[in-house]
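Protocol step 4 of 6.
Sequence for DUF771 domain-containing protein (Brevibacillus porteri) entered exactly as in the expression construct, tag removed. Do not edit the line below.
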Amino acid sequence: MHTQPCRRWWDLKRLEAETCRKRDWLIENILLNPEFKEEMAEISNGRESGRWMFRAKEMQAFLDRHFHYLNRRASQKTIA
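Step 5 output, structure tokens:
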């Protein structure tokens, strides 16, 4: 099985592809969510230079840790 090497950094477009979520949802529910402020400070560049960038391995670990929480938020928004 061929696997692509993990890029060192992701941009917001890559995060959209990894999560199957739209930009607005990612910004509201993850990147600017006060609950994740400290973690995002370690993982992202905070949109310095006008472009979101993320440490790939750390963001992947974050998404895995918060999988159930984030997907519960997505389904609640869909219902509301």
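Step 6, annotate. The CA atoms of residues 73 and 79 lie 10 Å apart.
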